[in-house]
C-alpha cells in the first residue's frame, strides 16, 4: 500500500522512456518502436519473398512437365502423321497422283493454322504467373497507404 507522502506512480526521474525535462518522449522508446516496425516490415517482406520463391519453383516445375509432354506428343504425332500420309499417298497415287500430295499439304496447313489460333487464344486467357504474389504485394501496399498514407494535421 502506498502511504500519503509517497511520490506519485509513474516513470521515475531520469527514466529514458518517460518524458524528459522538455516534455518529449524518450529516444529509447522511439528506437524500440522503430525497431519493432522494422522487424515487422522485414518479416512481411520475408514472407512475400518465400511465397514468390515457392510460386517460381511451382511454375518452373509445371513448365518443365508441360515441355516434356509437348515433346512426347509432338514426336509421336509426327511419326503417326508421317505414316498416315505415306499410306494415303500410296492408296491414292493411282487415281490422283500429285494431287494427293497437294491435298494432304492443304489439310495439314489448315490443321496447323487452327491449332496456332487456339494456342493464341489459350495464351491470352491464361492466368499471369506469380499472380498470388502480386496480389499479396497489392494488399500490403493498400494496407500501408491506409495505415500510414493518411496523416491528419
Task: Provide a compact summary of the structure.
This protein is mainly alpha-helical. The protein has helices at residues 27-96, 98-125, 131-149. Helices cover 76% and strands 0% of the residues.
Could you explain how this protein is built, in words?
The chain is mainly α. Among the domains are: 30-96; 97-127. The protein has helices spanning 27-96, 98-125, 131-149. Helix 1 runs antiparallel to helix 2 (98-125). The longest helix is centred in the middle third of the chain and has 70 residues, at 27-96. The radius of gyration is 35 Å and the shape is rod-shaped. The relative contact order is 0.06. The model has no long low-confidence stretch (mean pLDDT 80).
Topology summary:
Blueprint: H1 27-96, H2 98-125, H3 131-149
Helix pairs in contact: 1-2, 1-3
What is the arithmetic mean of pLDDT? 80
How helical, in percent, are the residues? over 70%
Strand count: 0
Structural shape = rod-shaped
Report the biggest beta sheet as strand number plus sense, adding barrel if it closes. none
Which structural class fits the helix and strand makeup?
A: mainly alpha
By DSSP (H or I, 4+ residues per run), the number of helices equals 3
Report, as a whole number of angstroms, the end-to-end distance: 43 Å
Low-confidence stretches: none
Query: Hey, roughly how much beta strand do the residues contain?
Result: under 5%
Write down the secondary-structure element order: HHH
User: Measured on Cα atoms, how large is the radius of gyration?
Assistant: 35 Å
Amino acid at each position: 500500500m502506498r502511504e500519503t507522502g509517497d511520490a506519485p506512480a509513474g516513470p521515475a526521474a531520469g527514466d529514458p522512456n518517460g518524458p524528459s525535462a522538455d516534455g518529449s518522449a524518450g529516444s529509447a522508446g522511439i528506437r524500440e518502436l522503430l525497431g519493432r516496425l522494422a522487424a515487422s516490415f522485414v518479416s512481411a517482406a520475408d514472407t512475400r519473398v518465400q511465397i514468390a520463391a515457392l510460386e517460381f519453383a511451382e511454375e518452373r516445375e509445371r513448365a518443365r512437365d508441360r515441355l516434356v509432354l509437348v515433346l512426347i506428343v509432338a514426336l509421336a504425332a509426327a511419326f503417326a502423321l508421317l505414316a498416315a500420309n505415306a499410306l494415303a499417298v500410296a492408296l491414292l497415287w493411282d487415281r490422283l497422283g500429285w494431287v494427293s500430295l497437294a491435298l494432304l499439304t492443304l489439310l495439314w496447313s489448315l490443321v496447323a493454322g487452327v491449332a496456332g489460333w487456339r494456342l493464341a487464344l489459350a495464351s491470352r486467357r491464361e492466368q499471369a504467373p506469380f499472380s498470388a504474389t502480386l496480389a499479396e504485394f497489392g494488399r500490403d501496399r493498400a494496407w500501408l497507404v491506409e495505415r500510414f498514407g493518411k496523416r491528419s494535421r
